[in-house]
Write a structure and sequence with these properties.
The protein has 245 residues and is of the alpha+beta class. It is built from 4 helices and 14 strands. 16% of the residues lie in helices and 30% in strands. Keywords: Repeat, Signal.
């Protein structure tokens, strides 16, 4: 009897040591190839992450319904609800995010006419009462100067400025921070159909140029040779180009 107790104690001690020595199972990336050549993420419980955002190692990724990561531009709807003078309203707006080729959300990236903020959400630049604002999908007025490396140009004047410095015909960006992939993906994701980029003009406000809302995205972002340019051609179309280093 005494021997049996010793053996039992030794057995449980051995099991405890083995359990402590086993490494904890952590989440991991899984690559499906050559069938799909896509990545998905397996959580520590063995389940596949699907349909939504997940932060992994400090980076945000968005997963499709089937669990594969999204890349490029993604368009996620958001429903807004409210009551104004006893009239209920509901509106669905489209929020755009950009994920690079590895699936990581691109944050704090500027582009012509807007930028992605620290959350990765795409925002629009706009003007109100002659002042420049950095706006978001709720069109909160946040006064700010143009992004670093940008300047406004008026094609009517050689120096790029109007006489009083108030008339703005376009912004010219020359910065190594812009990526050709960023512009290519934007025009490809939106396609040739008209899309106002979820940009709503509040009463009394006006944009940098009205054709900015009337033109199609395929016209806004047009590639010419190996560079990107931003200009007005007299037809109301706005063109953007990337200036390579």
């Amino acid at each position: 009897m005494k021997f049996t107790k010793k053996m039992a104690a030794l057995f449980f001690a051995t099991v405890l040591c083995l359990s402590m020595a086993l490494p904890a199972f952590a989440g991991e990336w899984v690559f499906d190839g050559p069938e799909s050549w896509k990545w998905w993420y397996k959580e520590d419980n063995g389940n596949r992450v699907t349909n939504g955002w997940k932060q992994i190692d400090g980076e945000w990724y968005h997963f499709k319904d089937n669990g594969y990561i999204d890349t490029g531009w993604i368009n996620l709807p958001k429903t807004l609800r409210g009551v104004v003078e006893d009239y209920a309203w509901e509106e669905t707006i489209q929020q755009w995010y950009y994920l690079d080729a590895s699936g990581k959300m691109l944050k704090n990236q500027n582009y012509i006419g807007g930028y992605t903020d620290e959350t990765g959400l795409l925002n629009e630049d706009w003007f109100f009462e002659g002042k420049f604002y950095r706006g978001n999908t709720n069109l909160e007025k946040v006064p700010a100067p143009p992004v670093e490396g940008a300047k406004f140009k008026n094609p009517l004047y050689d120096d790029g400025y109007s006489v009083d410095g108030q008339v703005v015909k376009g912004w010219e960006y020359v910065s190594p921070d812009y990526k050709t992939e960023f512009f290519n993906a934007l025009s490809s994701a939106l396609g040739p159909e008209r899309n106002d980029f979820s940009y709503r003009i509040p009463q009394g406000a006006y944009t940098m140029d009205q054709p900015f809302l009337e033109s199609t995205m395929i016209d806004w972002f047009r590639k010419e040779t190996d560079n990107w340019s931003y200009s007005e051609d007299g037809t109301g179309l706005i063109h953007v180009h990337w200036v390579n280093e």
